[in-house]
């Protein structure tokens, strides 16, 4: 049973940067696909980035591509989301997800608020 804990959220001004971390315990993340999701107030949860356990290939949705980068450090059993050039519309609770059929784990989320 894996446990995921996100950290690194906070209040940042537009144009600023944050790095979110997703640390796992109880299981190694090496063979899990990892995704970052976010949920803005009054909206559904949306996937924004993912990374493959096979070759480390990544995908970022167009709204964050070029600004956000997902990366994994298997030695630390941690996945990161580097967020640059943040915009007010990036304000949301950010969640990491680890998936390996048939298991699916979620963290508790970390709040990111982009405001001046």
Could you characterize the architecture of this molecule?
The chain has no helices and eleven strands. The chain has 116 residues and is mostly beta strands.
Condensed summary:
The protein has 116 residues and is an all-beta fold.
The description of the largest β-sheet is:
7 strands, mixed
Poorly predicted runs are none
Structure summary, number of beta strands: 11
- Rg over CA atoms, rounded to whole Å, is 13 Å
Run of helices and strands: EEEEEEEEEEE
By DSSP (H or I, 4+ residues per run), the number of helices equals 0
Report how far the terminal alpha carbons are from each other.
Answer: 40 Å
What fraction of residues sit in β-strands? over 45%
Label the overall shape. globular
* Protein structure class: mainly beta
Could you estimate the helical fraction of the residues in percent? under 10%
Instruction: Please tell me the overall pLDDT.
Output: 95
List the helices and strands and how they pair.
Blueprint lengths: L2 E5 L2 E3 L5 E8 L7 E7 L5 E7 L6 E3 L7 E6 L4 E6 L8 E9 L2 E4 L3 E5 L2
Parallel strand pairs: 2-11
Antiparallel strand pairs: 1-3, 3-8, 4-5, 4-9, 5-6, 7-8, 9-10, 9-11
């Amino acid at each position: 049973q894996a446990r995921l804990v996100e950290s690194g959220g906070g209040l940042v001004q537009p144009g600023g940067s944050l790095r979110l971390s997703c640390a796992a315990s109880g299981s190694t993340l090496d063979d899990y696909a990892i995704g970052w999701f976010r949920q803005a107030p009054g909206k559904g949860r949306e996937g924004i980035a993912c990374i493959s356990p096979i070759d480390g290939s990544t995908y970022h949705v167009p709204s964050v591509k070029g600004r956000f980068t997902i990366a994994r450090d298997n030695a630390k059993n941690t996945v990161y989301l580097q967020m640059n050039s943040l915009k007010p519309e990036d304000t949301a609770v950010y969640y990491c997800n680890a998936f390996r059929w048939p298991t699916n784990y979620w963290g508790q989320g970390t709040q990111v608020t982009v405001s001046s």
